Amino acid sequence: MKFIRKMADQSPIEDTVFKVAKAAKEDIKKHGFENVIDATIGTLYDEDRNLVAFNTVYDYFKNLDKKTIATYADSFVGNTSYHDAVQTWVFKNVALKLNSKVIATSGGTGAISLSLTNLMDSNDTIIIPEIGWGSYKLMAQQFNLNVKTYSLFQEEQFDLKNFKEVCLAVLQQQKKLFIIINDPCHNPTGFSFNQKTWQAIIEFINECSKIGPCILLNDIAYIDFSYQDTPNGYMQHFNQISDNVLIILAFSISKSLTSYGLRCGAAILLTQKKEHIDEVYTQFEKGARSLWSNINNAAMETFCYIANGGYQNYIKEKTNYVQLLKDRSSLFLQEAKQCQLQHYPYHEGFFITLIVDENHKKRIHQTFMDHHIYTVMVNKGIRIAICSLPMHKIKGLAYKLKQILDSIK
Ligand SMILES: Cc1ncc(COP(=O)(O)O)c(C=O)c1O
Hints:
Aspartate Aminotransferase, domain 2, three-stranded antiparallel beta sheet, binds pyridoxal-5'-phosphate, Aspartate Aminotransferase, domain 1, 2 domains, 43% helix, 14 strands, 409 residues, alpha/beta
């Protein structure tokens, strides 16, 4: 404790992905690609083992003028053209009646951490999904925040009852709520809420907001890989929020444009009252200035191009990969059903998660590896990254996993 701050949690980052991914690579070297299944990689790969990098995005990006790449952004909150493009993109076909403001962030990660650091005090509690993206917990730890989790499932449906109970307990104690919802395409289950669930959530948060301010952070990192025609349709319910509710959409071009390394995203703020949004925006601007100063200009420029002139070609290209995800997931789900391999409800997205008893999880995970199948342990489950597995590797996988599971019992 000589150099680091007093409140720091000194435990190392729990490495659930990179160690296993490395072991998979070594196994591939030893036993050959065809004999190993590496279901760890959480980015989109094509059927020929290549990381997908959209032509529509990179043909434009690579031809940008060097001064466009070299320059600072217009301001600490990002370029105005980028704000407009993000608004149009995210709220396409949604008649939004709220005040809204966009700030460019360092990916979706930046939008979430900016929100946590600027809106919550040390020792406050935030509410996150029980099975969810690991970084939420890490961020809370880094910013001295406590975490309460809500269970996601009541059989095949969202466990609204537990969600309400957890929120009410926290509200009673701190008279303020900060809730994270990773919808649509929840990571790592691939679950998505229906409109009725969203409506019920907004109605409930409005009730809560009579007791104290409520912040709902909707992490939409995977929205552009939804299988729905209008995956943002639920956002119409945001119009119903009360004055004491703030909605933040954490948007990211990492998945949307297959540009994980460009580190570009946005926090979109929504409120009923203009004075509330201005107050939050000022804090976010100072936060951005003190954390990353400004966001990659070339990434913002590329997004603006894709959102405008390049949109039709982008959609054509992306549609092929959405179809690929659909094909991969339906093959896995179909076989899982046939052999009764249990998994959490999956609707769409990059991952499918097996239901696994917490007490046996490590042993199961290791036994999969002993059979040259590499997966990622998540809370209460084991994640299969169908986003990077070619079809021929998915064929028969559910049967293999089920056979191994049965042999362990
Ligand atoms: C659920 C979820 N939210 C947000 C992100 C943020 O990604 P980025 O910071 O690259 O935009 C990720 C990335 O894996 C994610 O899985």
